[in-house]
Amino acid sequence: MKNILTCVFLHALVWVSADWNNAKAADVQGNNAKAADVQETDCSDPDCIELGTEFIPYAVVRDNYGRFVADRYFAVDVAVVNKHAQNSTLYINAFVFDLLSSTNAQPLLNVDPKLVRGSIEKGQLVGRRNVSIEILKGLGATASGLSGFFKAAQSAATAGRIIAAFNGPAITGIGAVIPDTTVKYLNNWDQDQVFKNGFVVPAGQTQRGRVFLPIQSLFPDFQRNDSQHKTAKDFRIDDIEAKIKDIHVLGFSAQSVTNIKNSDSKRIPSTTPSK
């Protein structure tokens, strides 16, 4: 009888141990399923970030950033879509321009916005408008010093009035008719948060901004031996896109992000990223 009870007890112990192991395995599988659900909720698959770009025509770049920028850079309008469902803000610092293999060139980075702003500042210093105004001011100052050479009092007085009119209302009027547009360019630049902080895209939102690529980085012979493109306005959008294979993100950070997906299309209307 004692042996029978011992056998029954051992069988019961084995059954309880097996049931506990099965329950533990089920808990582990449940935790793994929850982790998979969290990963899916965090949207860390390649389709969570979408990028669209559009090259801006020369005339539009000149109107918004000035001739000194339009003559030196290609401007690209960029839209970044952060498709994360959770509170995952995306921070993008730079973009890479992959060139076609036929160009035999390394990928290019967009230029630092501070350098582009420096080109606007140079335009303010040595642009045709401001240089012309400074020349007129110099001529007026020189003429003021020469007024003393008139011996006749009436002639000296007449010359003095002409010089005073030139140095005052005339130069002021010319400056009003031909305003210094670089002031507006610089103010607009400083108010653009993308130029200061990069692309900061909260979850579920879109950020638009501009990036710049030096013309001579893409066309090394520009302004040297390039007979087809003698000035920046000679470039067509098709000429630029014929050199570029793809544009994608270089530096970024975001919570719960492990992959990034970029559209192969260079135009913003593209809404479906390539696989």
What is the gyration radius calculated from CA atoms? 34 Å
Summarize the amount of helix as a percent range: 40-55%
* Biggest beta sheet summary: 4 strands, antiparallel
What series of H and E elements makes up the topology? HEHHEEEHHHHHEEHHE
Which runs of at least 5 residues are low in confidence (pLDDT < 50)?
Answer: 30-46, 254-275
Total DSSP E strands:
7
What separation lies between the terminal Cα atoms?
72 Å
Number of alpha- plus pi-helical segments: 10
Mean pLDDT level = 75
Strand content: 15-25%
Structural class: alpha+beta
Shape annotation: elongated
How many domain modules? Answer: 3
Layout of SSEs?
Layout: H1 2-42, E1 49-55, H2 58-65, H3 67-70, E2 73-82, E3 90-99, E4 108-109, H4 113-126, H5 128-146, H6 153-177, H7 181-191, H8 193-197, E5 199-201, E6 206-214, H9 215-218, H10 237-241, E7 244-253
Antiparallel strand pairs: 1-2, 2-6, 3-4, 3-5, 3-7
Helix pairs in contact: 4-5, 4-7, 5-6
What does this 3D model show about the protein?
The chain is built from 10 helices and 7 strands. It is α+β, with helices and mostly antiparallel strands. It folds into 3 domains: 1-42; 49-112 and 182-253, no CATH class; 123-181. The strands form 2 sheets. Strands 3, 4, 5 and 7 form a 4-stranded antiparallel β-sheet that branches. Strands 1-2-6 form a 3-stranded antiparallel β-sheet. α4 (113-126) packs antiparallel against α7 and α5 runs antiparallel to α6. The longest helix has 41 residues, at 2-42. The termini are far apart.
